[in-house]
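@channel sequence for tomorrow's demo:
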Amino acid sequence: PMTVLATGGRHLKDLNRECEDHVYCMYEYPQYDYHAQDNPDRKIVVTYSSINGSPFGDYGEAVMGVDKTLVLLKEQEALIFDNEGPSTKIKVGGKADSLDTTASGAGPAIAKAAMDGPISRGYTEELEHFAWCVRNKAPENQPRCHPKVALADAVIALTTNIALRGPENARIEFKPEWFDIQSDETPEYTFLKDEKYKVNTTREAYKPKGKT
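structure tokens (generated this afternoon):
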């Protein structure tokens, strides 16, 4: 990612916790296609939210394309929606336990399965493959989540935390050296030197006011 803008807080859990229970983030990525040749400022914005106060929606990803939308649910299902399909309106019928659905067109948009069968078991597969690599030692047997991938994930997560706990509306630019496995530069080291972030990136930021 190029930049991150984040907000959130501990809106539900006790203040003695170290982790926010509501997080909302926006990441800017460069758009690598033919459009970028005509407009270098064109970007892709990825939004991420984690709301621990409600189980609605569970977890997953949605990729919104020009013609279709791909929805991944719990790393188990992949559904493709036609963006041109009409929407479906839902209203409560005469009885309290009945619903009447009315399509605002020829009919509701139908989701098609993108793949047959389970797609993934998430982190379970990564851990199992890591154990397999340990048991089958060979240079060509490398974990799926190798150090470079793990470093990139860590940098994105740590930088987002800094944006969450830093000054309001802080928009942080990612530095290439943070993703370099040979570099000692880290997001924390960079921002701990900045007085605006110094307190907010330490444990002191999580201590409830008036308590020790």
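heads up for whoever presents: The helical segments are 35-38, 123-135, 147-165, 187-192, 195-198.
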